[in-house]
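TASK: fixed-backbone design
INPUT:
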C-alpha cells in the first residue's frame, strides 16, 4: 500500500512540475522581424497593382482553340474548325454526338474571352 501511495505521489509531483508555465517573452506570439525599437533599414516597396490581364489576339485565340480541339481524344473522328475575329469565335464542322458538341463549345468558351461564340456545328443525325 505504501508503494502505491509513494508512486501516486511521485506521479502527482511530476505532473505539477511539468505544468508550471514560464512567463511568455513575446507578447504577440511571433518573433519580431527586426530588433524591437529599431526601424527597418530599408524602406518597403510601395504596393503595386497587378498588371491587367493580357488580351489574346484573334489569331492566338484561334490557334489555342484549334490546338485543344485537335488534341482532345474524344474529338479524334470529328472535323471541327475554329476561326476567330475581334468580336466572335466561329465554330464549324460535324460531330457525332451532343456530348462532343458540348465539349467543343466548352473548349471554345475557355479561350474566347469577351468574344461571342457562333455555333455552326452540326450534330450527326440531327438537323
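OUTPUT:
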Amino acid at each position: 500500500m505504501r508503494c502505491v501511495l509513494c508512486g501516486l505521489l511521485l506521479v502527482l509531483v511530476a505532473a505539477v512540475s511539468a505544468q508550471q508555465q514560464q512567463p511568455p517573452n513575446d507578447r504577440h506570439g511571433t518573433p519580431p522581424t527586426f530588433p524591437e525599437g529599431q526601424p527597418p533599414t530599408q524602406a518597403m516597396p510601395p504596393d503595386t497593382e497587378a498588371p491587367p490581364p493580357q488580351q489574346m489576339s484573334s489569331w492566338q485565340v484561334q490557334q489555342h482553340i484549334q490546338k485543344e480541339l485537335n488534341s482532345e481524344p474524344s474529338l479524334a473522328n470529328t472535323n471541327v474548325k475554329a476561326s476567330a475575329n475581334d468580336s466572335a469565335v466561329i465554330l464549324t464542322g460535324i460531330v457525332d454526338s451532343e456530348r462532343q458538341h458540348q465539349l467543343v463549345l466548352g473548349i471554345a468558351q475557355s479561350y474566347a474571352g469577351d468574344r461571342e461564340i457562333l455555333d455552326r456545328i452540326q450534330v450527326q443525325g440531327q438537323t
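COMMENT: The longest helix spans residues 2-18.
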